[in-house]
Amino acid sequence: SKTPGEDGRAGSRTQCRYRRLTVIRRMEERDIPEVAELERICFSECWSARILESGIHSPYDVYYVFEQDERILGYCNLRVLAGEGEVQRIAVHPDSRRYGVGRKMMDAMVEYAVREGACAMSLEVREGNTAARNLYESYGFIQEAVRKSYYHNPTEDALIMWKRDLPERIT
Questions:
Q1: Mean pLDDT (whole number) for 122-133
Q2: Which of 80, 105, 131, 155 is deepest in the core (most CB within 10 A)?
Q3: What integer pLDDT is reported at residue 14 of this predicted model?
Q4: CA-to-CA dists, residue 2 to 71, 98, 104, 163, angstroms
Q5: Distance, CA of 155 to CA of 102 (rounded, Å)
């Protein structure tokens, strides 16, 4: 399977002539401008640089970036509190979607939640975001509730999804 930009162009599917350096790592302050731009591209109600900065210093939150050749293609945020993990954010640059970036970030968040002793995870997703819903369902998340007209620009319901059977440890 190809990764984004294997020939130097985002979204390209041509043969790889050199190896790409891809990492998922904890987000750092130096990443905030690039992540804030990703927020602007991916969300109609985006988080500010100030929110991102305060978040990376929160004792309850973990932020990861998916980086390829020093370019951030995605990021995610998980909050772990009282034995539960809540996916706060997951964003993938439009040119890098359908390459498994979201799945790799979900893997990192699930692993972190388990390491932190969470026994369940939850999230909210736009009802019309079929790709994200399919990803979450593939991890065993089940829709349990609806928040009517929760999202704006455009107005849309939020589906509340839970995975209540996290393993005690990652094998």
A1: 96
A2: 105
A3: 46
A4: 17, 10, 14, 30
A5: 24
β strands within the chain, DSSP E: 22-26, 61-68, 71-81, 84-92, 120-126, 142-151, 156-163
Which pair of tokens denotes residue 151? 């999202």
**What pLDDT score was predicted for residue 10?**
46
User: Measuring CA to CA, how many Å separate 72 from each of 16, 25, 112, 145?
Assistant: 19, 10, 20, 33
User: Residue 21, Cβ neighbours under 10 Å: how many?
Assistant: 9
- The confidence band for 17, taking pLDDT boundaries of 50, 70 and 90, is low
118-154: burial string, b at 16+ Cβ within 10 Å, e else = beebbbbbbeeeeebbebbeebebeeeeeeeeebeee
Backbone angles phi, psi at 13, to 5 degrees: -120, 25
* H-assigned helices in the chain: 32-42, 49-56, 101-115, 130-138
* pTM listed for this prediction: 0.85
**Scanning the structure block, which residue is given the tokens 């509340």?**
160
